[in-house]
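Write out the 3D structure for:
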Amino acid sequence: MSLTDLQAHVLAYYTSGHGKELSITTRWYPHAELIMIIDDKIGVAVRKFGRKAARETRAAATEFVDTMIAQGAWSTQANDFGGNMHQFQADKFGGLLAAFNASSPIVQAAAANDTYWADKFAELTA
């Protein structure tokens, strides 16, 4: 999936802040439920940037969940109905998130400028 500039910033804002505190009960979840959970968490994180940012959380959540599943932050198991279920791996998540953030030019730019997020979201949501 290719994210728009606003969606990429919504995702980077979440992963560089609130995402570091992610804790999910270690039961098995269907893919769509994981996206709903993360979508809600991203929405809470970016609500201060207004409705335009809040409308982009679903795409950001989908990208995040799919990337983290591919990297092993959620283990995957086929279920009896032909789908897959996923279980959060807290021991792997922190390191994978740190690597995700380290490879993000948006996160790096924000770390170098105290007003980056406010300025960038004002620009992207104008």
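Strands lie at 29-30, 74-78, 84-88.
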